[in-house]
Design brief:
By secondary structure, the protein is mainly alpha-helical. 52% of the residues lie in helices and 7% in strands. The longest helix has 29 residues. It is elongated and about 75 Å long.
């Protein structure tokens, strides 16, 4: 992997989320908790952003919720433990260099590369009732590539299901570096995937926790709401009656216990469920206890920030991101010889 021309003493990592509303436990365990670990580890220079332009790729017909959802996500970032003193937290659309690099990369990226991205056809099939035959939707993996490459990071922390997007980013960087060099050096390093643990986390209906399924437990849900949602959660279908034995390995509530409960509680769940010594209501109550214990400090941190404070942090982080992104774009423009006529105004 070529070294970035503008290097940092620490390896840089970059990741982000779309602003689709308040974040849920699946977002936390699949990404946010890992980001906080990377930040707190101290070995990495961390950039984490809110991808509001990406929200337009599927929700372009109604943009009314993008701004309020952005603030909800920012508050959840802070609630989860992301620290503006140790990470650069920013908004994608406030860093115009993202779109400039996206445009430049679009000139050299093959359509076939975009069409083969697994999520391209999957989302077209699953998001019914929306016209996704747009240039923006086809090109969103390339916008993701620009989001990454503009910061010349060494690593992108993702789960296995996102590895294909990073591989496209590597291909695009490789192609750019084939065509353009700056004083003989490659400008865009090929980022490596930093695989992060993403435990199986079911929603209340047993499917993957997702806003689109309406089966989520939000980071901001108060305790009574968490307990009520757990009461309605599906369980092992073999346990039709109270005295029927079950199997936690076949139960969505059991999956929650494996992620959040203590070893002692998990042992009680296995013993009680398999012998029908406990009922599903009691088992769900133990799961709710574990979730509340995880959520309480998150919600306390969220309550300590006002929207005005969150916006100030986002503005300051976006200014820092702009400065770093402009370093890359100066190199990109020079490598592409887009400054041959001299700087503007000369």
């Amino acid at each position: 992997m070529p070294e970035a021309l503008s290097s940092s003493p620490r390896p840089r990592v970059l990741s982000g989320m779309r602003p689709t509303g308040k974040l849920h436990l699946g977002n936390y365990m699949g990404a946010l908790a890992n980001w906080v670990k990377l930040q707190n580890d101290g070995q990495y220079e961390c950039y984490f952003f809110i991808a509001d332009w990406h929200a337009l790729t599927t929700d372009y017909a109604d943009t009314s919720q993008v701004a309020p959802n952005t603030m909800e996500v920012m508050l959840d970032y802070l609630a989860a433990g992301l620290d503006p003193e140790r990470s650069v937290l920013f908004l994608q659309s406030w860093v115009p260099q993202h779109s400039e690099l996206f445009l430049a990369l679009s000139m050299i990226t093959s359509l076939s590369w975009l069409e083969r991205v697994p999520s391209y056809k999957e989302q077209q099939e699953n998001l019914v009732g929306r016209d996704l035959t747009t240039y923006g939707f086809l090109g969103y993996p390339l916008l993701q590539a620009a989001d990454i490459l503009i910061y010349q990071p060494q690593f992108v922390p993702v789960g296995q299901d996102q590895a294909a997007h990073v591989e496209l980013t590597r291909e695009v960087a490789r192609r750019f570096n084939h065509f353009y060099k700056l004083d003989g050096a490659e400008v865009l390093p090929e980022p490596k995937v930093l695989l992060t643990p993403s435990p199986k986390l079911p929603g209340t209906d047993g499917r993957k926790m997702s806003k689109s399924y309406g089966n989520t437990i939000l980071l901001a849900d108060p305790e009574p709401v968490v307990r009520q949602k757990l009461k309605t959660m599906v369980t092992d279908p073999a346990r039709i009656r109270r005295n029927d034995p079950g199997d936690p390995d076949k139960c969505p509530v059991g999956d929650l216990h494996k992620v959040f409960s203590s070893a002692d509680t998990l042992a009680k769940v296995y013993e009680g469920c398999r012998t029908a010594g406990i009922g599903c209501i009691e088992c769900k109550g133990w799961a709710a206890d574990a979730l509340v214990q995880i959520l309480e400090p998150i919600q306390a941190r969220r309550a300590s920030f006002s929207e005005a404070q969150a916006r100030d942090i986002l503005e300051e982080g976006s200014d820092r991101a702009c400065a770093r992104a402009e370093e890359t774009m100066q190199q990109v423009r020079a490598a592409m010889r887009m400054t041959a006529a001299g700087e503007r105004g000369n």
